[in-house]
Amino acid sequence: MRSWSRSGTGASSRSTRAVGKARSGENEGNVVYSLFLPSGAAVLRGFHRDSPMNPFLHRKPRRWPGLVDGMPASLLRHADATSIEPDEVAFVIWYDPATASGWQRGRQRLPNGADPDGSEALLAPFVGAADRYLDFARSYHDRVLPRGPVVRLLRGAAVDAATVHRLNPARDAKEVLREARALGFETKGPTMTTKESKKPAEKSAQEGCEGQACSA
Q1: CA 124, CA 139: separation in Å to the nearest integer?
Q2: Same domain for 13 and 98?
């Protein structure tokens, strides 16, 4: 959890157009469920089977006390992030732009250990270490990504069409940029197709000819 707390507040969108959900995990069954709200708020729910906070260590699954104590009322109904396997939970962390307090977790007494809830291990690929993310992409998604674009994005660079193409040439850059902007990521470049982007320029040129002779 320590690394994640230091990683900043990337979920800062003010968009009102989209809600983003995601799931990432490991072959061992450890998983993170993510929810990104139009307000810019975000909720992450994680499950690590080796954590002493694993609900399934009890005969009847039981959540660790205090997981969401202190969560803003506006986010409580989103505490599970998704409806998928709601009992799979060892940690819940959230970001509320209204409080400007960064990423938060519930008021709880953690068991002894370096990573008792598994959040350090599960969130490590997403908190700024390019090599860790590249290893994660290779081992879990079977994808070998170029290091340069990953490093730049983790350092806060804007997402642009060239970066999208280098990371996944099969994706439509226009669509990815629109999704990224809706989720609060900084983007660079138009989200229109080349054909669409020419239309305003052509219209402006025609308007500039009004009231005067324009040569062909």
Answers
A1: 14
A2: yes
